[in-house]
Each structure stands twice: as structure tokens, then as C-alpha cells.
Automatic annotation (TrEMBL):
Domain Methyltransferase small, first and last residues per copy: 48-138
Keywords (A to Z) from UniProt: Methyltransferase, S-adenosyl-L-methionine, Transferase
GO biological process terms, semicolon-separated: methylation
InterPro entries: DNA_methylase_N6_adenine_CS (IPR002052), Euk-Arch_PrmC-MTase (IPR052190), SAM-dependent_MTases_sf (IPR029063), Small_mtfrase_dom (IPR007848)
GO CC terms of this entry: eRF1 methyltransferase complex
Gene Ontology molecular function terms on file: nucleic acid binding; protein methyltransferase activity; S-adenosylmethionine-dependent methyltransferase activity
Signal peptide extent: none
Name of the molecule in the record: Class I SAM-dependent methyltransferase
Protein family (similarity comment): Belongs to the eukaryotic/archaeal PrmC-related family.
PROSITE patterns: N6_MTASE
């Protein structure tokens, strides 16, 4: 994908997502009622969240889970409904407040904890048995608070930090699940792990990768 085409797709996707996230909305996601405030990433109508739910549905999860960058909490609640205790983080207090209300509304509050922090900095190393993250993948800096859910950083530093924190928080031999789009690199991404699912987005292809903690000797960040 040429730089001009990549920049154009990024601009179009950014504009469309901003418009979609301008107003708060109530959505049904996998049978869960989810209140999504403005500027929080909506689970319905977006490819990456749906793909992660499809992958999680096929997993047998024993132990504790984490979601880094949970937004309004849809995937965290999906995990809780599977009977898995989950801790979820987000940098946005507004999104976390909605996630807490969503947990209460869906009768899942006893299986979740929500923590306000940058990426996964508040989660201890090797604390969970599976970690999930759906990081922002558009290649520009989050200078506007409205862009926290979609801006992966000009050098994808936001995306990289979230995936690395997920990797650090996961016990050795256990799985890290994360999404990435070909918009992030301008071509099919080739990070560590195996592709478990893929789907077409707004002019891009979104992938779900699984990587096992301890499977790679080099820094995960160097492979993204």
C-alpha cells in the first residue's frame, strides 16, 4: 500500500470513526446491553471487537483474564459471562464509569474489576492466564481526547505499549490475544504469533493474533 493511499485510508477511517463516536449510544453486543459514551470505542459496528469475541468464544479459559484498553467494557463483560474473572484497564475515566455501569446492568459486576491507568501499567507481571487487547491502530498521535480510542501514535507507540503490557501481564505458556490492521503498517501485519481470525473493515483488513508468553526470546516490541 503506497504512503499516499495509506494516509488517505487513515484520514477517512479517522473521520468516520470520529463521527461514529460523537454521540453516546446504547448497543447490544453478543446479547449484552452496553452503554457507550462519546469518544469510547463502540463494540457494535466495528470489526475488531466482533472478531475478538468470536475468538474468545472458541477458547477454554481457566483462571483470570485481563483486558487492556477496555473502553465501555464489552469484551470484559463477554469474558465474565463465560464465567471468567477479569480485570480491565483504560486511560479514560469516562469509559470506565460506563463499563462499571454496564457490568451492573448485565449482572456481572461480581466477576470484574475496572482500573484507571495508562495501558496495562497497573497490572503485575505474569498475573493473568489470558490477556486481551484491541489497541488503536491508526498511525497518528492522540493529541485530541476524542482520539484516545483510535490513535495508535505516529510511530504506533500506543499500540506497541498496549500489546507489550498484555504480554508482560500474562503467565508463561499462556495466551495473549490482540488485534491489528493493515492500516497500521500499510501492508499485511507480520507481528509475533498466529492469525486466529480476520475480517474486512473500512478499507482495511483486521487480524486477531495469538502469541504465547515465552515463545519469543526477543522483545515483543521489536517484532511489531
Amino acid at each position: 500500500m503506497s504512503l499516499i493511499r495509506e494516509s488517505l485510508f487513515t484520514l477517512i477511517t479517522k473521520t468516520l470513526l470520529r463521527l461514529y463516536m460523537t454521540r453516546g449510544k446504547s448497543q447490544i453486543f453478543e446479547g449484552l446491553r452496553v452503554l457507550v459514551p462519546p469518544a469510547c470505542f463502540p463494540p457494535s459496528g466495528t470489526v475488531s471487537t466482533r472478531l475478538l469475541a468470536e475468538v474468545l468464544r472458541r477458547q477454554t479459559i481457566v483462571g483470570r483474564a485481563a483486558e487492556i484498553g477496555c473502553g465501555a467494557g464489552a469484551l470484559t463483560l463477554f469474558l465474565a459471562r463465560m464465567g471468567v474473572y477479569a480485570v480491565a484497564t483504560d486511560i479514560s475515566l469516562n469509559c470506565l464509569k460506563a463499563a462499571r455501569l454496564n457490568a451492573l446492568a448485565n449482572g456481572l459486576y461480581g466477576l470484574v474489576d475496572f482500573v484507571n491507568c495508562d495501558s496495562g501499567s497497573c497490572i503485575r507481571e505474569e498475573a493473568v492466564d489470558v490477556c486481551v487487547t484491541n489497541p488503536p491502530f491508526l498511525r497518528y498521535g492522540p493529541g485530541d481526547p476524542r482520539d484516545l480510542a483510535i490513535a495508535g501514535g505516529s510511530g504506533l507507540e500506543v499500540l506497541t505499549k498496549m500489546v507489550r503490557d498484555c504480554y508482560r501481564a500474562t503467565r508463561r505458556g499462556r495466551a495473549v490475544l490482540y488485534t491489528m490492521s493493515d492500516l497500521a503498517s500499510g501492508r499485511r501485519p507480520n507481528p509475533p504469533g498466529v492469525v486466529l481470525a480476520r475480517g474486512r473493515g473500512l478499507g482495511d483488513t483486521v487480524y486477531v493474533f495469538s502469541v504465547t508468553r515465552g515463545a519469543y526470546r526477543s522483545s515483543l516490541g521489536e517484532r511489531l
